[in-house]
Specification:
The complex is a heterodimer.
Chain A (H helix, E strand, L loop, with lengths): L17 E3 L2 E8 L1 H12 L3 E5 L13 E2 L4 E2 L2 E5 L2 E10 L12 E8 L6 E5 L12 E6 L12 E6 L51
Antiparallel strand pairs in A: 3-6, 4-5, 7-8, 7-10, 8-9, 10-11
Chain B lengths: L11 E8 L2 E3 L1 H12 L3 E5 L5 E2 L16 E4 L3 E9 L12 E8 L6 E6 L11 E6 L10 E6 L2
Parallel strand pairs in B: 8-10
Antiparallel strand pairs in B: 3-4, 3-5, 6-7, 6-9, 7-8, 9-10
The chains are: A mainly beta, B mainly beta.
Chain lengths: 209, 151
């Protein structure tokens, strides 16, 4: 490193080597109609989705539109507080802003009656026992702490029911091999085709190429 | 079926996104920040003899490494300025103030600062200013709390 010549006054002091430069963006989030209705439901300990027609998909949390139909979703539907883990991730690293003790599990949970999975925490079970297909239920904060935020549900915990062997990510017709169980076949039994080269895979589940 | 909500019924909440970066200063910027902590202002001496403040790591003309740091100031002269009538939350002063480019005594380039003044009429190009140091300093630009006019 190049030698720097300092003025007399700075020769015998501890040099500064790093500086904090946090970047902070201050927004105001406007929930909009659909999310406001959802969060208002949360204050009554209800999980409310929306759908476009009585036959179409139920979206939880609702965004006000059905992206498949390109239609507004004016029909409100209360869904169950019990659902199935469709995917999950065990977090083993603490990160800035996180208040969770590691390891913990973040999961996509398909609530009964819903066609879109919500992301939430799984607790009251060791992280290495969480599995796809596990049945879980919402655990709410104490009544006086309920606010219009999804954090009013503290986490989900196992119900103790038998696993659902047919669970798959909503909307998925053919297995991706990335966590879904097609016709009850565990993903480890699928061979996934490389989407670029077409190598490997099985004709049944591995893709078209 | 639901009807649209009245706009007053729609929920709103603050949403703050923060990235907790810290960066390595290197020896030149590090020396400048060390100086702020010690209430000393430094610049770097360029090959043509000019003193650049805040110090540059490379000569502005040739691009060669600059290695000689010299003390400047602490007083300086306003090179140019802009009055801020309505400071926002992230400005260094809560009341109306002037952004000033200050050419420190012994320096050949001006540096930016926030000048506390009684009003726009008190600020003139060429006026003499002096830094007001923060009580607690840790080696960052906020160690200069603000600048003020030399009485």
């Amino acid at each position: 490193m190049t030698e720097i010549s300092l003025p007399e006054s700075l020769r015998d002091v501890e040099p500064v080597r790093s500086v904090r430069t946090p970047a902070q963006l201050d927004y105001e989030f406007t929930a909009g109609d659909a999310t406001t209705r959802f969060l208002t439901g949360i204050t009554q300990k209800k999980i409310i989705g929306q759908r476009a027609t009585n036959e179409s998909r139920v979206y939880v949390p609702p965004r006000g539109a059905d992206p498949e139909l390109g239609a507004a979703t004016p029909i409100e539907v209360e869904v169950s507080q019990v659902g199935t883990v469709v995917s999950f991730c065990v977090v083993n690293l603490a990160f800035y802003g996180s208040v969770m003790e590691i390891p913990y599990t973040s999961a996509l949970i398909l609530l009964d009656g819903a066609d879109l999975a919500v992301m939430h925490l799984i607790q009251e079970i060791p992280a290495d026992e969480v599995r796809i297909g596990m049945r879980v239920e919402a655990v709410w904060r104490d009544d006086e702490d309920i606010e219009p935020t999804l954090e009013s549900i503290k986490w989900f915990r196992p119900t103790g029911e038998p696993d659902d062997p047919n669970v798959r990510i909503p909307g998925e017709i053919r297995g991706t091999g990335l966590g879904s169980w097609v016709d009850g076949v565990a993903p480890t039994e699928l061979v996934v085709r490389n989407p670029r080269t077409g190598e490997g895979g099985t004709s049944e589940f591995g893709g078209e190429g | 079926m639901t009807d649209g909500l009245e706009s007053g019924d729609v929920l709103r909440a603050p949403l703050i996104i923060e990235y907790p970066f810290s960066r390595t200063t290197g020896p030149v910027v590090g020396a400048f920040l060390t100086g702020l902590r010690e209430k000393v202002l430094v610049g770097s001496k360029a090959q043509d003899g000019r003193v650049v403040v805040p110090p540059a790591e490379f000569d502005p003309v040739s691009g060669d490494d600059l290695t000689e740091l010299v003390e400047v100031g602490p007083q300086g002269t306003i090179a140019t300025w802009a009055w801020v009538t309505e400071p926002h939350a992230k400005h260094p002063l809560a009341e109306p103030f002037a952004w000033v480019l200050v050419t420190l005594d012994g320096a050949d380039t001006p540096m930016l600062g926030a000048l506390k003044a009684t009003g726009i009429e008190a600020v003139t190009t060429g006026a003499r200013v002096v830094p007001v140091w923060a009580e607690e300093r840790e080696g960052r630009i906020e160690d200069i709390a603000h600048w003020e006019l030399v009485p």
